[in-house]
User: Which sequence fits this backbone?
């Protein structure tokens, strides 16, 4: 959770466990990372709202919430 932005991933839709790493690869500010074999999310307030992760995610698992 960020103060200004939440980057949310629906674990029921995410295919990280099946080998997908598209969001990790594309995010210019490294919000997504491999957290001991799970999809980790960090530094959400650094998100530039570029929407690239939304475009590459094959299952529409990601939601970006701008809180202010
Ligand atoms: S791109 Fe989507 S499906 Fe792939 S690891 Fe990221 S959130 Fe999960
Ligand atoms: S919108 Fe852009 S900066 Fe924000 S998490 Fe997705 S790829 Fe990263």
Assistant:
């Amino acid at each position: 959770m960020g103060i200004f932005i939440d980057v949310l991933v629906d674990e029921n839709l995410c295919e990280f466990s099946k080998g997908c790493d598209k969001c990790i690869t594309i995010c210019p500010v490294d919000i997504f990372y491999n957290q001991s074999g799970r999809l980790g999310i960090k530094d959400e307030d650094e998100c530039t709202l570029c929407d690239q992760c939304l475009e590459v995610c094959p299952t529409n698992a990601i939601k970006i919430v701008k809180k202010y």
